[in-house]
Amino acid sequence: MRPTNAVALGLGTILVLWKTPKRSGVIYVIGVLAVFVPWTLVTYHYYGTLLQPYDRATKLGLPSTFFESVAAQLVSPSRGLLIFSPIVLVGLAGLLIARRQKALTPLDVLSAVAIPCYLIVIALFPVWWAGTSFGPRFMTETLPFFLVLSIPFVDWVVAWRADKPDNRPPLYRVGVIGLVVVLAFSVFVNAQGALLSSTICWNLKAPGGVASVDKDPARAWSWSNPQFVYGVRAIGSEGLGAAITRCPSGTPIP
After folding, report:
1. Which of 15, 39, 210, 230 is most deeply buried (CB count within 10 A of its CB)?
2. What b-and-e string marks burial along 204-225, b requiring 16 or more CB atoms within 10 Å of the CB?
């Protein structure tokens, strides 16, 4: 688990203790302690402290890149969640539908609060470009919450689909077309990361004096050489077999 999962634990604990009977809350706390206590004892045994170095809050602060990080996690061409997985917009549509129908559940509220909380915590970490990775590495933990929020939208589509075509409003067609487009684009982008080894090579030092992303984080904002199409470009320049198995020619692997 990453340290940022403390957000989910904290909000989940509030929800359980608020919305469940007292007996269920006690069982929940016992379950948490059954994991937390042994983990803490093992950590103290090996590190002499209650938290591992990786988990310490000293790694966080209010860096000058805070607002840049917030923007990068959402719309950077090489790290932005909305660029790599625009399917998450379905979650926003679901939240609006549930709110309009006055059908928000406590879990919906938790999910809607968790996403910006994660974004804030991530932006407190100075390495906002997420090192050598593919896409929105830091924002992957928000995907379960987007899934929860998308349920009202899916229900809305299914309900309208049950009607005769003549009874479906234009908004239904717009919603379905939009869903297909963002889903297809999300699969197209992420399939590169899953199938093409060359995609990770975007992070490395390249010919022509291009520094690695760790040396030059500003590369994460480059629209002329974005990671979300790097695999496709590698196929065009090197061929499919090379794009699957290795970096483009001239890109050293450390």
Report:
1. 230
2. bbbeeebebbeeebebbbbeee
- Whole-Å CA distances, 111 to 115, 179, 183: 6, 21, 21
Nearest to 217 by CA among 69, 51, 93, 110: 69
247/239 Cα distance (integer angstroms): 11
Q: What number of residues does the chain have? A: 254
pLDDT per residue as tens digits for the range 35-77: 999 999 999 999 998 888 776 655 667 778 899 999 999 999 9
* Whole-Å CA distances, 46 to 2, 50, 118, 202: 19, 10, 29, 37
Letter string b/e over residues 161-186, b meaning 16 or more CB atoms within 10 A of that residue's CB: eeeeeeeeeeebeebeeebeebeebb
pLDDT band at 207 (very low <50, low <70, confident <90, very high): low
Read out DSSP for the chain? --GGGHHHHHHHHHHHHHHS-HHHHHHHHHHHHHHHHHHHHHHHHHHSSSS-GGG-GGG----TTHHHHHHHHHH-TTT-HHHH-GGGHHHHHHHHHHHHTT---HHHHHHHHHHHHHHHHHHTSS-TT-SS-SS-GGGGGGHHHHHHHHHHHHHHHHHHHTS-GGGS-HHHHHHHHHHHHHHHHHHHHHHHHHH-GGGGGGGS-BTTTBPPTTT-GGGGG-SSS-GGGHHHHHHHHH-HHHHHHSPPTT----
Note the pTM of the prediction, 2 decimals.
0.86
Q: Encoding tokens for residue 9?
A: 């634990």
